[in-house]
Specification:
Elements lengths: L1 H25 L2 E9 L8 E9 L2 E8 L11 E5 H6 E10 L11 E6 L4 E5 L14 E6 L14 E3 L1 E2 L5 E2 L1 E2 L7 E9 L2 E8 L22 E3 L18 E8 L10 E7 L10 E2 L1 E2 L1 H4 L2 E7 L1
Antiparallel strand pairs: 1-4, 1-20, 2-3, 2-5, 5-6, 7-20, 8-9, 8-12, 8-18, 9-15, 10-11, 13-14, 13-16, 16-17, 17-19
Length: 296
């Protein structure tokens, strides 16, 4: 009987200890639930990281990946309860992996202010990109000004300029914050070809690797004449293809347009060179959106 009492007492004591340890493990913690649509797979070199802003300072809520189908690898994150209760807003960034610093990068993609225990996340929030691109406009011409006057392949180049303006800029885009840059694309039979990155619709972009040996006009664009990538032949008739203006993170490890594509236009199958074609605003279809809920 004594042995039974001792064993029973031992189990009770162990139960108290386990219960005490478990309480210590979870005491002072709370969680957030993250629901985001429209993010893309960042590959092996980058991760998404969430941050709550507590008394003006960022506190990491943890990192996650996004699969090819857009699903988040994690949606629930444990956080110090006092920090979460004091948080005024939430910011989502893109971070290098591995990350050499504990601070947020400059690449802020979504943000929102807490209203009670919930926050709607938007690219247009001032702590994110600060623009929703819904008012972005643009247009382009097909032409090959870098080929030395050869007029037999004029549909094999795209330039974002407006000939009626002298010529002038063909794009009206908001100024981007640090961590983001615009990029032009010609999508040929499903293969995206970068025409260069730029910060303004006026001035050259950073790429001329497909162009001829003559100088192009001082606007974003590219002739598709030389150094064709594998699977594509130059010159190429862009009539019936697609042109895109995307917003890209800096740095960027993808050979394809990022999820943010504010301007996208199929090129008219009967398109003619040197005619100004307007682009369609696509921001509402490609801007990521989301929400976050805190559970204290």
């Amino acid at each position: 009987m004594k042995y039974i009492l001792k064993i029973t007492t031992l189990f009770i004591l162990l139960g108290v200890l386990v219960s005490s340890c478990s309480s210590d493990d979870v005491a002072g913690t709370a969680t957030i639930d993250l629901n985001v649509l429209g993010l893309e797979d960042l590959g092996d070199d980058f991760l998404y990281e969430g941050w709550i802003i507590v008394n003006g300072a960022p506190v990491s809520t943890g990192t996650f990946e996004v699969g090819e189908n857009g699903d988040l690898s994690r949606t629930v994150f444990a956080i110090n309860e006092d920090d979460l209760e004091a948080a005024s807003s939430f910011v989502l960034t893109i971070e290098p992996s591995p990350d050499p610093t504990p601070e947020p990068s400059a690449v802020h993609i979504l943000a929102g202010d807490f209203n009670g225990n919930a926050a709607d996340l938007e690219v247009g929030h001032s702590a994110a990109i600060g623009e929703d691109f819904l008012n972005a406009t643009g247009g382009y011409i097909l032409a090959t000004p870098t080929d030395g006057g050869n007029d037999t392949n004029e549909n094999s180049g795209v330039w974002w300029l407006d000939p009626s303006q002298g010529p002038g800029p063909g794009l009206d885009l908001p100024l981007l914050p640090e961590g983001w840059i615009y990029e032009g694309w010609a999508v040929v039979d499903g293969t995206p070809l970068s025409t260069g990155r730029f910060t303004s619709g006026s001035g050259n972009d950073d790429f001329n690797g497909f162009s001829g040996d003559q100088a192009g006009p001082p606007f974003p664009g590219e002739d598709l004449l030389t150094n064709a990538p594998e699977g594509v032949s130059f010159p190429v008739d862009l009539a019936g293809q697609t042109v895109v203006i995307s917003v890209e993170p800096v740095p960027d490890n993808s050979p394809a347009p990022f999820t943010l594509k504010p301007l996208v236009s199929p090129v008219n199958p009967a398109a003619v060179d040197h005619f100004f074609y307007e682009m369609s605003n696509n921001a509402a279809n490609t801007n990521p959106t989301g929400s976050i809920n805190r559970k204290l």
